[in-house]
């Protein structure tokens, strides 16, 4: 599955190419894009992120991958599924998450929701997952709206502190959204 190619009405979801580094490095260096993450990423750190995603795809069969527009091939960022592999486990591990990171000019156009829905379809119908989760810092309202638009459910009782951040870090408090295959099937 290392060359996954999924399509939506407007988007192509594909595997990583070497020429993705520069546009992704620009996205990961943007303080506004990265405001809900502990720090922006350097070009070398972004190269490490792409290597990590490629390695995860080889290992798990899927991971976050590039999103581009069908109309002109513009690189928008990445969306995909991933098995979180933090050194300290999440309180709801094992799990598969859906996540995204798009450039600012792609915000507000429904691209994250469109790509995430296709990855969710793939996760349930092709991989055979029973549940997909998504999580973010409490204050990340834009991503939380995407999670709600794609049919995920939030339960305040599952709020948690991200294990890789100190408890007093301003981004430590996280919310968890869930979507089961059976819930998705009922929504359709």
TrEMBL record:
One of the Pfam families matching this protein, by short name: Acetyltransf_3
Domain of life: Bacteria
Domain N-acetyltransferase: 11-182
Database matches in InterPro entries: Acyl_CoA_acyltransferase, GNAT_dom, N-acetyltransferase
Annotated protein name in UniProt: Protein N-acetyltransferase, RimJ/RimL family
Species, as recorded: Roseibium denhamense
Taxonomic lineage: Bacteria, Pseudomonadati, Pseudomonadota, Alphaproteobacteria, Hyphomicrobiales
């Amino acid at each position: 599955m290392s060359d996954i190619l999924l399509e939506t009405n407007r988007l192509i979801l594909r595997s990583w190419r070497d020429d993705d580094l520069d546009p992704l490095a620009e996205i990961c260096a943007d303080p506004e894009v990265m405001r809900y993450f502990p720090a922006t990423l350097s070009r070398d750190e972004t190269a490490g992120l792409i290597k990590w995603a490629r390695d995860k795809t080889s290992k798990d069969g899927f991971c976050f991958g590039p999103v581009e527009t069908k109309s002109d091939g513009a690189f928008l960022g990445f969306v995909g599924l991933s098995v979180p592999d933090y050194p300290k486990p999440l309180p709801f591990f094992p799990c598969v998450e859906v996540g995204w990171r798009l450039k600012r000019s792609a915000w507000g156009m429904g691209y994250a929701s469109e790509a995430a829905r296709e990855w969710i379809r793939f996760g349930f119908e092709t991989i055979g997952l029973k549940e997909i989760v998504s999580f973010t810092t409490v204050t990340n309202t834009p991503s939380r709206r995407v999670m709600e638009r794609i049919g995920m459910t939030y339960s305040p009782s599952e709020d948690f502190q991200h294990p890789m951040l100190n408890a007093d870090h301003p981004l430590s408090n996280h919310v968890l959204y869930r979507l089961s295959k059976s819930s998705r099937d009922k929504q359709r």
